[in-house]
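Aim 2 progress update. The chain analyzed this quarter is reproduced below.
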Amino acid sequence: MAGKKVNKLNFEDAVERLGAIAAEMETSGLSDCVKLYEEGVRLALLCRDEMEKAEETVFVLREKLGGA
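Predicted structure tokens:
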């Protein structure tokens, strides 16, 4: 996964990587934890953006269906 840039990941891969980061942080030293935390923040922001896009799509579709 290290070869992939964060912004190239899809939502599912980002969530999977977040889980891996959490596991890695349990056994890593402080400097590695800081790097992993930074990657995790970028992934979390990517996931948040994707969720907001999905929420907007659902909202638009509900409006088209008359709010059903």
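DSSP finds two helices and no strands in the chain. The mean pLDDT is 91. These observations will guide the mutagenesis experiments scheduled for the next reporting period.
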